[in-house]
């Protein structure tokens, strides 16, 4: 739909495995909602806010289609949407079955399969990266030798930095392979190690045109788990222009046509290289960072743009402020005491995901972090300063 085109009297969406924000944003725009949630779990509280709720096995496309087809026949959906990792593939699959516009199942599947994604990029010469799919530790060792340097082993469909390991050389391949399997890694792929700053790129697509909205500088700790984000990026303009060109070419290559995307990039000596991407808003509160720094509501755009209710971003926005988040990673052990600093005089918020008596595990995935501090400031450096000062004063005492 072209922006400004006449909107149906009551547009309606099916929201698959939906976040509360997406249901609420659609309702605020006058869009009817049907929430589809996993029948294996209790209905989320936001189900009461949707126009209707349906419980389905999200892994069963036939069951999902059977549940939504009669509702679509009675009052047609304009889109099937999702902003959660578990809902992206089911949403694309059933949208295709219903004949609705949106990102194709092929595109979403490419974004969730890092091996196939890399094959597409390498075949087109878009930021080529040496890669292989080792079947065992011996295959991993052979790739290390061929690469002539460190490599990264990760699951083809992994998220939240789970089961991602650096392999320094062939001698470490056996031990890393065992650790990968112990961490639940499946569908292994190995790629040459990409050295340089890591960033993430938030974009929004409309009618096949892509607008880069923001570039975020990323901090990572052991096991490649993010420990912080700051935006706007401090990288120089020529580098950011190169990143933008790469991301737009990448989104064209995978066939993304609409909605948000979160693309992770390494800025190497040979130029930027894609790490992975998702057709959703970035996690780690990046949605909130965008709101604080740019005044952007990506969830509302996701719901409203397909129906012409909101104009799509036509150009990269100018940052109003800076924004930052820092994650809390206390020493492993059992939480024995907590003390929080006063946030008065700042825009900061502190959230803890642990309480006294909870275990704190070594940080091997995003879920192992203990909480965060988020803040904005006059610019990115000011936001980072406020955030880090408060994070340094959070006391989470642990004992083994």
From TrEMBL:
Signal peptide: none
Domain ATP-grasp: 118-307
Alphabetically ordered keywords of this record: ATP-binding, Ligase, Nucleotide-binding
Protein name as it appears in the record: ATP-Grasp
Keyword Ligase: yes
Gene Ontology MF: a single term: ATP binding
Pfam families: ATP-grasp_4, ATPgrasp_N, LAL_C2
């Amino acid at each position: 739909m072209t922006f400004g085109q006449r909107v149906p009297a009551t547009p309606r969406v099916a929201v698959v495995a939906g976040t509360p924000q997406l249901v609420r944003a659609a309702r605020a725009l006058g869009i009817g909602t049907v929430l589809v949630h996993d029948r294996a779990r209790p209905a989320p509280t936001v189900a009461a806010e949707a126009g209707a709720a349906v419980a389905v096995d999200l892994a069963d496309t036939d069951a999902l289609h059977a549940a939504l087809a009669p509702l679509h026949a009675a009052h047609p959906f304009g889109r099937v949407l999702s902003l959660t990792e578990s809902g992206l593939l089911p949403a694309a699959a059933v949208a295709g079955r219903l004949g609705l516009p949106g990102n194709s199942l092929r595109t979403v599947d490419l974004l969730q399969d890092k091996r196939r994604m890399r094959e597409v990029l390498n075949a087109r010469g878009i930021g080529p990266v040496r890669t292989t799919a080792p079947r065992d530790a011996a295959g991993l060792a052979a790739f290390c030798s061929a690469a002539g340097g460190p490599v990264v082993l990760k699951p083809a469909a992994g998220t939240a930095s789970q089961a991602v390991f650096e392999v320094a050389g062939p001698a470490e391949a056996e031990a890393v392979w065992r650790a990968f399997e112990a961490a639940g890694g499946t569908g292994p792929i190995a790629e040459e190690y990409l050295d340089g700053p890591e960033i993430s790129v938030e974009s929004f697509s409309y009618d096949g045109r892509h607008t880069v909205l923001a570039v975020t500088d990323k901090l990572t700790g052991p096991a490649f788990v993010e420990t912080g984000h700051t935006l706007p990026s401090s990288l120089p303009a020529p580098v950011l222009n190169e990143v933008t060109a790469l991301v737009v070419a990448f989104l064209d290559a995978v066939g993304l046509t609409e909605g948000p995307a979160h693309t992770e990039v390494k800025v190497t000596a040979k130029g930027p290289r894609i790490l992975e991407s998702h057709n959703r808003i970035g996690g780690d509160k990046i949605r909130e960072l965008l709101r604080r720094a740019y005044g952007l509501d990506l969830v509302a755009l996701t719901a409203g743009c397909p129906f012409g209710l909101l104009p799509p971003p036509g150009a990269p926005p100018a940052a109003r402020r800076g924004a930052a988040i820092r994650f809390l990673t206390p020493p492993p052990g059992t939480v024995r005491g907590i003390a929080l600093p006063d946030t008065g005089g700042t825009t900061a918020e502190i959230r803890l995901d642990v309480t006294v008596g909870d275990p704190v595990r070594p940080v091997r995935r995003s879920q192992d972090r203990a909480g965060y501090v988020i803040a904005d400031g006059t610019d990115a450096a000011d936001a980072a300063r406020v955030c880090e000062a408060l994070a340094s004063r959070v006391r989470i005492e642990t004992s083994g």
